[in-house]
Amino acid sequence: TYTFRSLGTHLVQVNVSNTLGSVAGTLEVIVVDRTISNLTVYQEEGPEVTVHGQPTAFHITMVTADRSSTFLEIDLGDGTTFNHSLVNRHGELLGTGPSSSDRFQITANYLEDCYLNVGFRHIYSGSGSFQASVRAWNDANGANATVKDLVVVQAEILRLFLSVSSALPVNVAQNITVHYADHTGPLSVVWHISKSDGSFSFNTTTNDGLLEHTFTTPGTYIVGVEVSNMISSQQEAKEVTVQAPISGLTLTSDKGRYIRTGESVVSTATVAMGTDLRFFWDVTNGRRTGIQYTANSSVVSHVFELAGVVNLTVTVSNQVTSAVTEMLQFHIQDPVQVGNLAITTPTVLGNDTTIVANVEEGTSVHCHVDVGTTSYNVAVNEG
Asked: Across the chain, what does the average pLDDT equal?
């Protein structure tokens, strides 16, 4: 036996002889190192981002002369780990560990000078950024290597849903959100808010789908968002109406509570604060003869042709305020018409005197008699 102390090819001269002669020969002995060295792993050339559901290709190289007892552990960074025994099978599928052709496949071949090339492909089941690494070992030593760059896997953004109310109150902070499919990888969310008349424009970028914004001026706005990753982009926009809430509603009339039949009454509803106001008038009995509007008020005219008690109601609302209501009550009466006034004569001192007033027209009539030294309230009877 002999122990070689250096790597490489050694020539061993062998001479066998006896008294009758000799035989000589030369043996070529190749001395190799069974340790693993120069282990590298990298992602094969392709797009910077792997599309969700598509295979990602990797390549491993190492120097080893051991062709029967070298093992390889591959960690894909997504919780998936494969262990394989590397043997020379001339490029055929290698491995004794669990594998599935639709998610992982490995092939290898030994080249000259003890170089081992290993190629494998993996389909990531989810999106994200993953750190892939490998470990190779035998009974002589072991080595580790990591892919230099993260493996970025993204899903294409197919649709967005922008969540914002179509009507918002002024000077109140609002949370505006955009919803998109999960696991789309690193995202860029760009927001754009502009007023329809061009007097306001706002742009910002967030790391997620949430924006807090306060509208300080009433009006009509376009709220837009663009969500992008490294392989796709989608946009969505909505029209938003911003209004000032209603407060300070007052209702007045140019007449008192008692009104003659046939008389025109002008009523005015005024709002101290509020925009985009809607006025709704309701009257139990009456004919509307005119109506006018301003930014914060409404004026309506009515003629009441029938006697009775009338309720006049105004309701004011907009898209950000519940309805606000005020009411006036009128007593509509026919004017009093007295046909004649009679008294029994001659009047005898100490005896009763009858006074008769014939009322031909009028509603809710009251009679008051004043005889100088005293006065009476007298009931009015039909007939």
From this structure: 84
